[in-house]
Amino acid sequence: DTEVTQTPKHLVMGMTNKKSLKCEQHMGHRAMYWYKQKAKKPPELMFVYSYEKLSINESVPSRFSPECPNSSLLNLHLHALQPEDSALYLCASSQDFSGSRELFFGEGSRLTVL
Amino acid sequence: KNEVEQSPQNLTAQEGEFITINCSYSVGISALHWLQQHPGGGIVSLFMLSSGKKKHGRLIATINIQEKHSSLHITASHPRDSAVYICAVNRAGNQFYFGTGTSLTVIP
Questions:
Q1: Whole-angstrom Cα distance, residue B105 to residue B97?
Q2: Which of A38, A39, A57, A98 has the fewest CB atoms in 10 Å of its CB?
Q3: What mean pLDDT do residues A15-39 have?
Q4: In which band, very low, low, confident or very high, does the pLDDT at B30 lie, cut at 50, 70 and 90?
Q5: Does B14 contact A at CB distance below 8 Å?
Q6: Looking at residues A71-84, what average pLDDT do you find?
């Protein structure tokens, strides 16, 4: 199983809603990532979890709250988002967070904030 | 300045043509990656390189560590190859740096 599964694939939410994006992998990877991608731009790193601990937070606004309940799951909790937060949110995983490592991406969750 | 530069930004080719996408980087790396992203979709890893050359089907990736340059070649291109191709590098114990991507359209 070399899949990273993201749900939902599409999400529309209002600025006052609370929602969550979910990501799951069963490859035994110990590093998991959230990226944000705007149209025609490369992915921008948001968070990295290494061995279920938050290793990197790229100065992401607190309206985005990551959570890693266990080594297979990664959530991104969303609250009071702005229309400019509309983007494709990509989850990725790798064996660990050191040296040369291949990134496995999910299909992404396309978020629209109204 | 971007750590990873790709060229061209956009590329249109006729079916069957040989295609080359270039990537230059300015930092020391432990590996270079070529990724493929279809419209609206997720990203698939095509190659991870630290030296030399790799081939998978009609795709060939090369890297010259001394010149800090990599190329992705597609032989006998096909409309299903139409996608955005992204070059990314990672440094030991650090995050990835992504290029801005090359948008490829192959016309039947």
A1: 24
A2: A39
A3: 94
A4: confident
A5: no
A6: 96
